[in-house]
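Hey all, quick one. A colleague (J.T.) asked me to put the S-adenosylmethionine job into the tracker so the inputs and the structure tokens live in one place instead of scattered across chat threads. No bug as far as I know, just bookkeeping. Sequence used:
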Amino acid sequence: MTSGYAKWDKIYHEYPLKSLGWELGRARPILIEFVKKGLIKKGKMLDICCGAGTNSVYLAKNSFSVYAADISPKAIQYAKETARREKVKINLLLQSFINLSFSNEIFDFVFDMGCFHHVQIPDRAAFIKGIRLVLKKNGIYMITCFSHKNGSSWNHFTKIQLKQMFSGYFKFIKIRHYSSIEGDGIKRFFYTVLLKK
Ligand SMILES: C[S@@+](CC[C@H](N)C(=O)[O-])C[C@H]1O[C@@H](n2cnc3c(N)ncnc32)[C@H](O)[C@@H]1O
């Protein structure tokens, strides 16, 4: 594993949740939309890089059986507090996406909000294979990542790049490009992609 991931726990310790760009304090509107439209079948799901658990809580309240993993002990602590406050059961796990400890083919759905775009380039192939492995046949992987419209960067992707990275492993069901005013008040551009194993 590359060492660039240790910074995350420091970030959660050093900054209040409300100041973090990705922390909207409520579930992602696109997740709510896709669940309401029935694009994601309810079942056993993994929130990969769950952060403070906002999306996990929404999914647990909507009858998903939720497993949620993050590398930051502080983020997991926040998620535990949120789950307790909201009275929902979430199976929270402190673990890195590099060595997922789940059995093969156990999840119907993997939710990834802002996780893949933080995977270091040398770890990308292993990450994608790991997600594919834990998904059941026909399982859905929903990924939201930074788009090239935020400016050029190693982890700002074009549609073509997304197709290049994922089409060897998944079928593309849906791809949407949009902007969102994030928790820090900044407008950012994202792709949300629904992939099927
Ligand atoms: C941009 S935040 C998104 C958090 C959450 N998905 C949300 O939307 O609120 C990225 C998350 O990835 C987690 N993370 C970074 N590297 C990780 C790794 N190697 N394994 C697991 N989680 C990791 C961070 O701790 C952080 O919570």
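Adding what we noticed when we looked at it: Residues 6-196 form a domain with the Rossmann fold fold (CATH 3.40.50.150). The first strand starts at residue 44 and ends at 48.
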